[in-house]
Amino acid sequence: MNQSKDATLHQRILSDIEGRIVSGEWPPGHRIPFEIDLTKEYDCSRMTVNKALTQLAKAGLIERRKKSGSFVTQPQAQSAVLEIHDIKAEVQSLNLIYSYAVSARTVRKAKADDIRRLDVPSGSSVVEVVCIHHAGGRPFCLEERLISLETVPEAGHADFSDIAPGAWLLNQIPWSSAEHRIHAVSAAAEETAALDIPRHTACLVVERRTWSNIGPVTHVRFTYPGDKHALVARFTPASA
């Protein structure tokens, strides 16, 4: 087999497998045909097939397991650290169906922990909302949010049944500054139940506070299973 034909087949194998994964034809966990079967299907050398599968594994699309074969990986979402990211957009970028549901909504006086998290004065009123975001029918992210009723009084009448709190706030009030805090936790009972994961699973937590020119707007804590999400920061060199 000449090198040009080998290179063409390599690209064709890559494109075919990637297309089936991205389209959802081969969902997460699907076993890729064995190398010997792909060799017969494409009438090429085993080296060509191996090279294509290795490249797909490096791209994070498949996982190669010794003696078991190659399997489609669970896609990993990425969001920007320095931006107010949209969970719905994250899920849709993975070519998965997005949905979300409100687990709890409470209007109450701010507790000591609320005052610390939201940076509001004592005696303030808040809305607490707990949501579960889903990707492809599976729990994707646990959202625990506080909204200041001093800054956003309209939140006291919103039930968030049709639109997630984050998207609702972006449409309701402009934010002027934000703060992100990122850390890891071991899944406790609440995360275990909400995300349908084993106890003590490593999780990635992104906490965010936003302010408007009027005052504190919201504090939100997003909890993701640790192997399902990545954070990306893009930056330029500081000027002299």
Unreliable stretches covering 5 or more consecutive residues: none
- Tally of DSSP β-strands: 11
Helix content: 25-40%
Give the C-alpha Rg: 23 Å
Fourth-tier CATH superfamily name of the largest domain: Chorismate lyase-like
| Top-tier CATH class of the largest domain | Alpha Beta
Which H/E pattern describes the elements?
HEHHEEEHEHEEHEHEEE
* Structural class by secondary-structure content: alpha+beta
The fraction of residues in strands falls at 25-35%
- The CATH architecture of the largest domain can be named as 3-Layer(aba) Sandwich
Order of strands across the widest beta sheet? 5-6-7-10-9-8
Q: Give a quick account of the main beta sheet: strands, pairing sense, barrel closure.
A: 6 strands, antiparallel
User: What is the number of helical segments per DSSP (H or I, 4+ residues)?
Assistant: 7
Shape: elongated
Question: How many structurally independent domains?
Answer: 2
